[in-house]
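Board notes (copied after class):
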Amino acid sequence: MAERRARGLKSFFVRPHQRAAPPPAEGANTEPGDLVSQNIDAIAQLHAHAERRVSRYQRAIEAATAFLGRPLFLYLILAFVTLWIGGNLLAPRLGWPQWDPPPFSWLQGAVTLAALLMTTVILITQNRQNKIEERRAQLDLQVSLLAEQKVAKLIALVEELRRDLPNVHDRHDPEAEAMTEAADPHAVLSALEETLEKVEEEVHELEEVIEEQEEGLP
C-alpha cells in the first residue's frame, strides 16, 4: 500500500511527457525536467518510507479521521440528531413510547461519548503528523545548512579566482570575505535565544509600567 501511495504521489506531480522520458545516458546534460522528476522520486520515497512504518491500527484510525473531516459526516450527524429528536417528539402522537424523552439524556450521553472518541482519534492522527512534520523540518534544516556551506565555498572560490586573474583589479571586500565563512548554527541559535530573552524582558518591563500607571489612576 505504501508503494502504491508513492506511485500515486509521483503520478500526481509528474507530467505525462516527464513520465515517458527515458533515463539520461551517461555524460549527458541533466535537463530541468529530469531534476524535477528526481526530486519528486525522492519525495515519493520519503512518503513511502513513512507509510511503511504505520501499523494497521494507525491506518484504521487515520481512515476514520479522514471520514470525520468530510461534509458527509456532518450531514449524517444532523440527520441523526433530527431523527432522534423528531422521533421522540412524534412518538406520543403515534401511540409509541418515548425511548428518550426531553431533555434527551440518552442523546446527550451519546453526543458526549462521540465527541470524546472523535477527539482521541484526531489527537492520535495529529500526533503522527507532528512527528512527520518534525522529521521534514529537520531535513529542511540539514539541507539549508548544506546549501549555506556550499554557497560559502563558492564565494571563496570566486574570491580566489578574482585574486588570481591578472586582468581583474584585486581589492579587499570585507563583506565577501565574511561570506566565505559558513554560519555556525550554535552561534545563530545563541544569538536568537539572547534576542528573544531581551524582547521578553522588555515586554515584562512594559507590562509592569502599565500596571503601575493603572494603579496610580484614581
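Comment from the instructor: Residues 58-148 form one domain. Helices lie at 2-13, 16-19, 32-52, 56-68, 71-90, 105-164, 174-179, 185-216.
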